[in-house]
Specification:
By secondary structure, this protein is α/β, with parallel strands linked by helices. 44% of the residues lie in helices and 15% in strands. Helix 6 crosses helix 11. 46% of the residues are buried.
Length: 318
């Protein structure tokens, strides 16, 4: 099993690099890897040629165009088109080339904006989506349905997992395209260095978010890869399985934690003219817990590890 040829799409990103590291610690060493410069996953002919030449046995789709509220709302067409093309090209070529197992990574934004909390897997497609990230969510829902359809029509061992908000090593700290947690780390650090007396936070600070350290996600993915198959989900009327902590925190509380860790001494102010996004996005992870997996890294510990990584890889290189 450990000699299986594994293709991790997006291996240089935060999620893909964590998955690669986790599989290597388990003794897997037969990987086929391509950067975006080497293989544009949006181009069908390039993906077709890659699969024919490399013939991977296991595929994990961690490649995606991602970003926070600002990027999602500004680049709506690209978020929809790019993600549709990436997942469709990979999934179809996996089928054509006899891939034994495929795992697709979605996002908790697939759930309706006002769905009951915590979010159970069966709430998918039960109501309308949050407008600001609707294109990304629709693309991810299409990926889930691709995996389900290839299983139901062809018996392919393809299934999807839905991680909550992720953060950690190799995160994106660009203020325009990053998610809230890394953006706040950068904002607080730069405010401290510049001796600013305040940090401005988008929105009211009232929405709640769940955060999972990326190494914990990689551990959960390996756990599921090792223990379940598509049949285990679809024959129990599931299209995917949630991965998260089962715990959430307000953006206001998150800001206070990051303020403490970065040692910023000024004030926090909220710009309520900016959008809040979905009021709450807490995943129901009871099915994952029943299988025997739980997260290991506390939020404060994970933020501290991420901040230290940011200092080592961004600040020291400026």
């Amino acid at each position: 099993m450990k000699n299986k040829k594994i293709y991790i799409a997006g291996h240089k990103g935060m999620v893909g690099s964590a998955i690669l590291k986790r599989f290597r610690t388990e003794g897997y060493n037969n990987f086929v890897l391509r950067s975006f410069e080497e293989l544009d996953l949006r181009k069908q002919d390039e993906v077709e040629k890659f699969f024919k030449n490399e013939n991977p046995e296991v595929v994990i789709i961690a490649a995606a165009r991602v970003g926070g509220i600002l990027a999602n709302n500004k680049y709506r067409a690209e978020f929809l088109y790019d993600n549709l093309m990436i997942e469709a090209n990979i999934t179809n070529e996996a089928y054509k080339n006899g891939v034994e197992k495929l795992i697709f990574l979605g996002s908790s934004c697939i759930y309706p904006k006002l769905a009951p909390q915590p979010l159970k897997e069966e709430y998918l497609l039960s109501n309308y989506l949050e407008y600001t990230n609707e294109p990304y969510a629709i693309a991810k829902i299409a990926g889930i349905k691709l995996c389900e359809s290839y299983y139901r029509q062809y018996g392919c061992n393809y299934f999807s997992i839905m991680p909550t908000n992720l953060y950690g090593y190799n995160d994106n700290f660009d203020l325009e395209s990053s998610h809230v947690l890394p953006a706040l780390i950068r904002k607080f650090h730069e405010a401290k260095i510049s001796n600013n007396d305040k940090v401005e936070i988008w929105g009211s600070g009232k929405p709640y978010r769940e955060f999972l350290f990326v190494d914990d996600l990689a551990d959960a993915i390996f756990f599921l890869f090792d223990r379940i198959n598509a049949k285990n989900l679809y024959e129990n009327n599931l299209t995917h399985i949630n991965i998260g902590t089962g715990e959430d925190v307000s953006i206001s509380e998150l800001s206070k934690i990051i303020k403490k860790i970065t040692d910023f001494k000024g004030n926090i102010v909220y710009d309520s003219s900016k959008p809040d996004g979905t009021p709450r996005k807490l995943l129901d992870v009871s099915r994952l817990h029943q299988l025997g997996w739980k997260h290991k890294t506390t939020l404060e510990e994970g933020i501290r590890l991420t901040y230290n990584w940011y200092l080592d890889h961004h600040v020291k290189n400026l």
